[in-house]
Amino acid sequence: AEPGAELQVALVPSYACQRHTPLLHHNTVLTDALSILAENAELTDNEGRGVAFRRAAALLKSLPHEIRGMEQLKGLPCLGDHCLRVIKEVLEDGTCSEVETTRQSGQFTALKALTGIFGVGAKTADRWFREGIHTPSDLQRSGHTLNRAQQAGLQYYDDLNRPVTKAEADAIGRIVERAVSEVLPGAEITLIGGFRRGKNTGHDVDFLITHPDEGKEEGLMVKVVSWLEAQDFLLYQKTTRNSYLESKDGPARPPSNMDRFERCFSIFRLSTHNGVRMTETDPHSHFSVHPHDSHPTPQTCRTVDVLSREDSSEIGQPQSSHSQSWRAVRVDLVVSPYSQFSFALLGWTGSKLFERELRRWAVHEKAMTLSSHTLYDSKQRQYLRANSEEEIFALLGLEYVPPCGRNA
Ligand code: DGT
Ligand code: MG
């Protein structure tokens, strides 16, 4: 081994929020294997195991080199016996039998296919699987009563399981920006989720909306959604007031302005202008570049081919009728009061594991409670204010990690 290699390894910190985790890294063979086991654990009601596999994968993603032998893992955190067995097998044989068995198992493939339906979670999928329903087509034939979300999920199954490109995310961004500026001039929208972390594709597009005059954002979601519906952009939407369920271990009663936090789960109808070249740049567009955001993604000028879609409608749904003129895209909208914007931005940029690690760090290392709304200091018994993500990291005693480093 190289001199100093072990020392370097000993310095890898154990919380993902203490490290930079880039999108592209050196250990994809190992992390792909661990991710399958994580996914399987999550699908079979084994959250604890799922998190353990996710943490191990995230650790490997943050390493600056490729792991080629077990000796390189000495002293690294987050790697339990099970993970080490998996890694050892992959390093020695190229594959791990447990991973391959899982990948090919009927239960895993069925649960994946069923949870691939918008509106279907792991519990529902598992119940259906036990009834012999293994595919979306099975479900359709079963005559089960489905809620509105699940009906839309089945109807647009193929579209919603095809990755959303950055160009499509930007096109949706321009529509949302138009909607927002029509109903509330001065409101600001920011691209969040995986695309803010630099991903080229996503399963959905996430936006955060706010207004510099606190209070103006109240009731904004309903107006935005009405405008989008009137323009025929929405195939499905469900707007919820914030239920504040996320911080189970948080202070029992949040301040009353929390009630204003609104969220809309939607499915957009996005024109694909098949064969037409669309210019992405709008000089007046400022979405994804928020004044609070000191690390904006430069909106570079480029021209893109908007996909030409092959209609491969597996379940023979109405998708064939709109062949190539539009596609369905999952879009999440969140409205936040200005004073909570930084917390919302940090909380909705992800990744899910990075968020989980931030909250775990806050509780266990700092006796604080972090949510997408606030940071509460249990020792001082008070909420701490912050006007940027950098300030929140500083309050948590962490070095700042930019969005592109949060791909844990
Ligand atoms: P994707 O869409 O699969 O490409 O990847 P992400 O990272 O955009 O994942 P997504 O869209 O499920 O969620 C975006 C981030 O928003 C996620 O990393 C954590 C956060 N998030 C999602 N759902 C909730 C929620 O119900 N409450 C809170 N506070 N945050 C959420
Ligand atoms: Mg997303």
UniProtKB/TrEMBL annotation:
Give the record's GO CC terms. Answer: nucleus
Keyword Transferase: yes or no? yes
UniProt subcellular location: Nucleus
What EC number(s) does the entry state?
Answer: 2.7.7.7
| Chain residues that bind Mg(2+) | D204, D206, D332
Q: Which cofactor does it need?
A: Mg(2+)
Enzyme class comes to transferase
Q: Which UniProt keywords apply?
A: Magnesium, Metal-binding, Nucleotidyltransferase, Nucleus, Transferase
Q: Which reaction does it catalyse?
A: DNA(n) + a 2'-deoxyribonucleoside 5'-triphosphate = DNA(n+1) + diphosphate
- Which family does the record claim for this protein? Belongs to the DNA polymerase type-X family.
Q: What task does this protein carry out? A: Gap-filling polymerase involved in repair of DNA double-strand breaks by non-homologous end joining (NHEJ).
Kindly provide the name given to this protein in its UniProt entry. DNA-directed DNA/RNA polymerase mu
Covered residues of the complete protein? 132 to 539 of 539
